[in-house]
Amino acid sequence: MKVLWLQAAGCGGCTMSLLCAESPNVFDTLGGAGIEFLWHPTISLETGAEVRAIFEAVEAGEIELDVLAVEGSIARGPRGTGKFQMVSGTGRSMLDWVVSLAPKARHVVAVGTCATYGGVTSTGGNPSDAVGVQYDGAHRGGALAAEFRSGSGLPVINVAGCPTHPGWVTETLLLLNEGALSAEDLDEFGRPLFYAQHLVHHGCSKNEFYEYKASAVELSDIGCMMENLGCIGTQAVGDCNIRPWNGEGSCTSGGYPCINCTAPEFEEPRHAFTETPKIAGIPVGLPTDMPKAWFMALASLSKAATPERIAKNAVADRVEVTPTIRKPKGRR
Amino acid sequence: MSDQPRLVVGPFNRVEGDLEVHLDLADGAVAEARVNSPLYRGFERMLEGKDPRDALTITPRICGICSISQSAAAARALGAAMGLEPTPQGAGVAALIHAIENVSDHLFHFNLFFMPDFIRPVYADKPWFDRAVARFTPAEGGAQRAAVAARAELMHILGLMAGKWPHTLAIQPGGVTRAPGPRDKVRIETTLRAFRRYLEEVVFGGSLEAFCAIETVDQLMAWETGDAGLFLRIAADLDLDRLGRGSGRYMSFGAYPLAEGFGFARGLWDGGLGAVDFGAITEDLSHAWMLGAQAHPWQGETRPDEAMREAAYSWCKAPRLAGQTVETGALARQVVDGHPLARALAGGGVLARVAGRLLELARTQSFMEGLAKGIDPGAAFMVQGELPEAGQGAGLVEAARGALGHWLRIEGGKIASYQIIAPTTWNFSPRDADGTPGPLEAALVGAPVGAGETTPVSVQHIVRSFDPCMVCTVH
């Protein structure tokens, strides 16, 4: 399977994350399955005229393209020209290239939340008029029309995340390579369900604190960060706490909140990222699939029942009270 | 004489981000170069009006390869505005996290970005060619495969202490969000030992202390082992010291600020060592598609010229220190820090920049080991502070590629202005109002161009020797 990878208006961090793939390393994970880069800006030898020749051959249909992978959002500015990102050496904008190459590809994969929905590049007034490949925030229709379908008949596959976990990208490519990713395997924002069917909350190391609403007050406290510190892991899709990042990490295990980076428009939360907005002292944005009144009733009950160990640890920067050990009965 | 008087080189890959180089040729060499950063996103504008703390979430996303450097600069800028310093142990862990990123970047630059150019057919008759192909063929070469595996394992320290990489929120003005325990400390030390073994067996083929003890260029060129030895053999054969020579003016903001001082010193080298006059930094807009006047970053603004006027050719502003260009990066840091080998290499070209990076890679390993050993699991790793309603602060750090500055001004509790000068903004700046070219533009003059070459390999060596990060450059 041949993959052409373009870096549009983004930070390149999804590639940097992809290169962290392990067991086996990224080259063996992809290469072993017969997945090769027709060209990748970070990895490939070809530069300059050699690259232009590849682009032109794909555009002319002389090279069959299995996957067009786009990382970074598509800058449409200024005034719809796309000139805020010219593809160097070609005299043409990235917007122009993506629109031209996408129909040639069997699959189009948007890698990262910039490429999927616009992401951080589109925050704060969106100076470059950036959009995702097939979405503008949560709305269908970005650089490509809402109706766009690649050669396989699929819409753009949205591997959202800021950055993407290396496994999300490699496994999407591996599934496509095996013909094992269909429209039913994507959620309503086009994200592969194999990771988007989970919530960041699942497997979070702070779950016991959450059960009792034993909350961290400041960053560096080890309690649950939902009530005060802006954590939206209970609503954010991703298997971040089921499979670790970089060996044994995740945002919440690193001591900072989940900011819902797999979601459209996460870049504009309308409050400080690390602070939970509240109305009359009650956090807004409670878990999505639970009646609010029930949540409030359970929360006040569990708060009242919080064991001292959990209450103390929640506002400490390390475990200060260890679990009570029950001695085994019998034998002696 | 080349048959083409003008060349446009792009897409220019194995640099981070977008780069286009325009060359005027004469007598088989580059006569003039113009460097274009063809991507504008407008991060400085995005930040205006936001809660100052949001800089810690947004600025790392300027760049996926220097993400922690951006975190560190934002945290220091906020801290300066708050009158807050991290706890000594918090500063130590933040320095360790930052050093892991810088070392990873040096490793990738050497193995993935720079060395593959020596497997081009133009070098097929060289005695070292087969070895270069075996080691540095993209995705296949032994050195490349070992480098991605070693870097992924080294980054377990980031998983542990920073949650993930890139784009962590672990570094805060008062320290770091996660306090390492005794078990974390021994795990970090174990990972670092494995990385040392990789460096000594594969990259250097000898002890790091022996490499760090090299004091002269002759001693350096006699180092034969490891992939470093292969590079030095190639460098001698191709005379890479003379290719792309620099001005010899080097600046470092000082790397890894700790309670006891910098890990690598702060200063300006121009034949002798001096202090950096931070008040003398300006950004010139004469050849950038930016509107407004030349200004210090405290007064600077970022207004793109949507008409992309003819007189300009890049989205990159042209930073100058007291009106002069400076080169920044690993070589600059090591020169300023006073390492004898770096001082001996000062003013050099491709060899000097790449050797400076290898030297720093070796030196940073023992620096990281010292930081890990110094972790006190009982200490405080973070202190809290209050954001002012109005104030300002600068965050000056060293990214892998050199001096990175954030200048933050707060009014009414919101960001009123945020100006950033990244390392490659210095190195790859366009001309200024006096017509003085930026450091890369100057270094490219005289680069040989073979007849019929459309993407001159000498130009590629010089450009990549700077390890540019173009996504940071314009931001």
From TrEMBL, chain A:
Tell me where on the tree of life, at the top rank, the source sits.
Bacteria
A Pfam family name for this chain?
Answer: Oxidored_q6
Tell me which EC number(s) this protein carries.
1.12.99.6
Reaction equation(s) it catalyzes: H2 + A = AH2
Q: Which cofactor does it need?
A: [4Fe-4S] cluster; [3Fe-4S] cluster
Q: Which cell locations does it reside in?
A: Cell envelope
Q: Which InterPro entries match?
A: Cytochrome-c3_hydrogenase_C, NADH_UbQ_OxRdtase-like_20kDa, NiFe-Hase_small_C_sf, NiFe_Hase_small_N_sf, NiFe_hydrogenase_ssu
Name one cellular component (GO) term. cell envelope
The entry's [3Fe-4S] cluster-binding residues are C240, C258, C261
State where [4Fe-4S] cluster 1 binds: C11, C14, C114, C162
| Keyword annotations | 3Fe-4S, 4Fe-4S, Cell membrane, Iron, Iron-sulfur, Membrane, Metal-binding, Oxidoreductase, Signal
Domain named Cytochrome-c3 hydrogenase C-terminal: residues: 197-273
In this chain the NADH:ubiquinone oxidoreductase-like 20kDa subunit domain maps to: 11-174
Tell me the GO molecular function terms: 3 iron, 4 sulfur cluster binding; 4 iron, 4 sulfur cluster binding; electron transfer activity; ferredoxin hydrogenase activity; hydrogenase (acceptor) activity; metal ion binding
Q: Which GO terms describe its biological process?
A: anaerobic respiration
Q: Please classify the protein's predominant subcellular localization into one broad category.
A: other
What family does the entry list? Belongs to the [NiFe]/[NiFeSe] hydrogenase small subunit family.
Protein name per UniProt: hydrogenase (acceptor)
UniProt source species: Thioclava pacifica DSM 10166
From TrEMBL, chain B:
Enumerate the GO terms in the molecular function aspect.
ferredoxin hydrogenase activity; nickel cation binding
Listed GO cellular component terms?
cell envelope
Protein name in the entry: HupV protein
Q: List localization entries.
A: Cell envelope
Q: Which family does the UniProt entry place this protein in?
A: Belongs to the [NiFe]/[NiFeSe] hydrogenase large subunit family.
Q: Which SUPFAM superfamilies match?
A: HydB/Nqo4-like
Positions annotated to bind Fe cation: C66, C472
- For the keyword Kinase, the answer is no
Entry's Pfam families?
Answer: NiFeSe_Hases
Binding sites annotated in the UniProt record for Mg(2+): E44, I420, H475
TM region positions:
none
Q: Which cofactor does it need?
A: Ni(2+); Fe cation
Q: Does the record's keyword annotation contain Magnesium?
A: yes
Under Gene3D superfamilies, the record lists: Cytochrome-c3 Hydrogenase, chain B
Q: Which UniProt keywords apply?
A: Iron, Magnesium, Metal-binding, Nickel, Oxidoreductase
User: Where along the chain is Ni(2+) bound?
Assistant: C63, C66, C469
